[in-house]
Each structure stands twice: as structure tokens, then as C-alpha cells.
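Form 7-S
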Amino acid sequence: MPQLLLLNKPYGVICQFTPSPPHQCLADYVTIKDVYAAGRLDTDSEGLLLLTGNGTLIHRITDPKHKLPKIYWVQVEGIPDEAALQALRDGGLDLGDFKTQPAGARIIEQPAIVWPRVPPIRERAAIPTTWLEIIISEGKNRQVRRMTAKVGYPTLRLIRYAVGGYTLDDIPLGQYKLLNIAAPGVAKPEPVKVARPKQRGRRGPNKVR
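Output:
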């Protein structure tokens, strides 16, 4: 039975198992052998990263034809107006190498499970920040950051909350949940355990407060 690992990746962790100083890598957090990232999450982004050793499952998660929705919590500089939100929703934003598809976009309160980031974002005293929920089914390079910048609201912090039906719920920062998958793409996987990673040095995973 294929297994799927759901990691809550901290900020600053590079999405590979090979060490790459000064960044931490996945080997600092994942103790399971022979698993690989199904998709990527930028070093300066946080949240849900899926890993598995099953090639069919990786294809199911990453192939654009399956259009798995991805939910991001995005802290932006400023307070987006309705025109900016509608531009995100409508799609067609020209980001140079591609134009975006329609997306979900709305203002939300800071989610209760969000943890303090280390290091904290750089905020300007005179400019407020806003949390957005953005839902896309694409996965282009730094797409969400480029989208918010295009409509005039730079991303300060980006957390991936969900991919398809898999979410960050009940996964503390820097830890992972291991699921048994009856078949690639099943709607309700069977949870088997939550594992604590090994910790190395002063830059280990942060505790949820």
C-alpha cells in the first residue's frame, strides 16, 4: 500500500534531501527513507509539502491534467481592493512567461493555526498587511508571489495550507503525518501516525504557540 508523507515545512528549508548550507534541507526533518517531494515549495515559503516513494502517486499529484487545487494563505503588503481581488479571480494576468488561469481569492483573518515565522517578516509601520486565501490549480514558478505583485500587493509571507484533500490540520511546524493510501487519488486516506523529526542544531523546527 503506497504511503504519503505530509510535512509542515518551515521557512528557510530547501526542498531537497541533499544538504545545502546555510539552508536546512528535508533530511533535517524527514526520517523516512526513499521518499521524494511530489511538487516543490520554495525555500522562502512554508506549509504543506507532500512526499512519497510511489511514482504513480507522484504523477497523480503533480500532473497538471488532474488539476488538484492548492490553497495558499498569503500575507501581503497593503489592503487589496475589490478590483485587485477580481483580477486574481478572473485570471489572464500576464506574468511574462504565461497567463494565469482563474483563481480563488478572498481576504481572510489570520488563520488560528499560523505560527510565528523565524525570522519574522519585515513590516513597514505606516503600511498595514492583509491575509488572503488564494486557490490555484496550476503550479508555475513562484506563481502566487508573482500574482499578488502583479495586482500591486507584494507577498510578505506564503503558507501552503492544502493540496487536493490533504491539509496542514493537526501537523505542527516541522513535523509530518504519514498516511497509507489505498489507491492513488483516494478521497479519504487512512492516517497511521504522526512522527517527530530529528532535530539538528539551533535552527531546528519551531514549536507551535
